Amino acid sequence: MSDIETITVPDLLRGYPGVAFGGYVAGVLARRAEAGTVRVDFRRPTPVEVPVGLARTADGGAVLTGADGVLAAAVPDEEDLAAPGVPGPPSWAEASAAAEAYRAAPPEGAVDCFGCGLDRTPDTGLRLHCGAVPGRDLVATAWAPGPALADADGMLPAELMWGALDCPGNAAGRLLGTMREGAVTASLAARLLRPVPVSARLVSYAWVVAEEGRKHRVGAALATAEGDLCGVSSALWVAPRQAPPPR
After folding, report:
1. What is the bridge-based pairing of β-strands 139-143 and 52-56?
2. What InterPro entries does the annotation carry (predicted)?
């Protein structure tokens, strides 16, 4: 393991209360990994506003550690995420209509997440309000990142591109599958294909791949309004254990 860098995830970048947004955490690790496609496995929640350790590993990956041990680990991944099996993106109009439908009737249990929080603005969140697309087995949203999210070159940081490939999977599991509220990302593999300027019109969309009990495998993609793919991902979401019925 290389030298450990100390980082602190600000509260703005939370997913669940007190917990860092998983897509962002994955993106932080992926930027340190030496591979085009990276898989991040989440072991424990990463707290916000608490210093944690970040280091590269000998296998070309990276690891994030906290007071109780490993929080998340990234490794190079061999999966061809950009294979022809990725569905074509919905149109900007379809994604906009799906987002409006989601905002009109969001699933129960919505939280103030940096990725999909309903009260976020374009400068304080990604606003990934993914609703079902009629006639297709997809959820989607149309969105444009605000100027405050730009890096020094006016681009959407890679960490936030990873975020755009995370939350849509939750919406797919909730709206198209059987996933219950409170699910968390257990692993997220992604490949970024092209940079994204801030204020660009973007479409994030996702679909269900397979479900087995509490485990839900989903795919997601990020595209421009013109239909050019910017990134693809594959994720495993795990729902909380169902509480036993009251006696």
Report:
1. unpaired
2. HotDog_dom_sf (IPR029069)
